[in-house]
Fold this protein.
Amino acid sequence: MMLKDLFKKSPSANYISLSAAKIKEPNVPTGMWKKCNKCQAPLYTEDVRKNHYICPKCGGYFRMHAYRRIEMIADEGTFEEWDRGLISGNPLKYAGYEKKLEALREKTNLDEAVTTGVCRIGGFPAVLGVCDARFLMSSMGWAVGEKITRAVERASQEKLPVVLFCCSGGARMQEGIVSLMQMAKTSAALKRHSDAGLLTVTVLTDPTTGGVTASFAMLGDIILAEPEALIGFAGPRVIEQTIGQKLPEGFQRSEFLLKHGFLDAIVAREDMKDTLAHILSLHQSGKRLNLPEKWPRRIQGEEPEDGKEPGAAEKKSAPEAASPWERVQISRMASRPSGLDYIERLFTGFMELHGDRCYGDDGAVVGGIASFHGVPVTVIAQQKGKTTKDNIARNFGMPSPEGYRKALRLMKQAEKFGRPIVCFVDTPGAFCGLEAEERGQGSAIAENLFEMSGLKVPVLSVVIGEGGSGGALAMAVANEVWMLENSIYSILSPEGFASILWKDSKRAPEAARVMKITARDLKKLGIIERIIAEPGCAGEQNLHRICGEMEEYMAEFLLKYQDMEPRQIADQRYRRFRNM
Ligand SMILES: [Zn+2]
């Protein structure tokens, strides 16, 4: 009997009438039907299972049993469970606790609220921990803390990444202070794992709250969440009681957390396995550049070919006639390719990561991990919008403190995993506004200059449009800085310069000349290493050619640093700025 037939008989079918139907149809065994708790639709269990436990009617997510989740994420037959049978005692001698656990074990066929083990995900080995809400709301008592800690410790020993599917009501009240200590214990294990240069990915599912949010759930190098999951430290009911106000719609949901900078990405359940496999693939160590054979031998690290550079075009194609002021205008053109245009053409498999883990996710800065000829790299770009709406979302490419903090977070992460960093600079300047000052714009920029100077991985910055002042420099403390031929890099805008020094912003064209802000001037001054030719002006029509040249230079840059000691890389960058 099909579900639609049931609806024909009873258009207002609900769970009860379905049960009635079941009695009339003894062939339909119990358990074949499920009711969606979001839209109340009666559903065929098999349809729900095939649909990744997502309601086919309303798209709502069902909570998943740990073993179903493992089936969905681990490659078939690869999951090997660890510490099965490890169970909590009753440290407070809390009345009825042992009985309750026993009943739950029987009912759920689980020993505890978390299942751990090792598996392969898309072929990549990983340690996997999965919480199950059926077991006391997956609260963290001793056994949960111990299983996670053991799994992480073993992952550290075996140099494996950790993937944790979180879901929890928080610490387990019945175990009192012992439960509280699990927060510190799991966090400490993850700290050691991280210090060993190893990856942790956490996936927050509905609901992830309390002590788990305040420990292992929020400690992933990369933090993912399922859509619309409730995530928060204090539960909504507690907050409402405390502040005496009703909370707004969507408060503490995944989308809210993403906006506030605490998640890297929200990933639909059907895409989760592929996403995890992609992340794992970008964290394989010891990857080396794999360049096409037809590329010039010079780039492949062999003998130079009688002075032929890939960008020999740079000398002839520059429109000599363009004045500095004209270049200022070209650098600001709306049709100019943006950071994401370059990322899309120069790299493969770009995965955008969001948020500063502190306040917000700044649209004026995009960043993430991608691959460059087989080598994982962290790429970060200051991003202007293409349309008015996009420009508002990206604040016209003027980063806020949270944008610089996101950039720095991603750079520190790149350093941890030994990934080179490529930055695309294109900003009129850091955002000047009340909120930016409140959140420490100066401090955020300073922190980037401070931390970038010591990064032990190669950093390349390419100015693709406007390189406006400290806002640009905060992403350009690099081993090499390159500029597109018509880009500019300056202490402030020519308009600002003219109005400060000459009290006349109309003298901006003159200021543009005096300031030495073009790529050619800056190359002469020794401020930048390379000019990337723009045949005509950069635009959709010649982007392919510009990127082709940039790609070869980039390969050359990365080859140069591929075998350099981390300390040497930082020293080289230090000297570069020390000499200025
Ligand atoms: Zn539904």
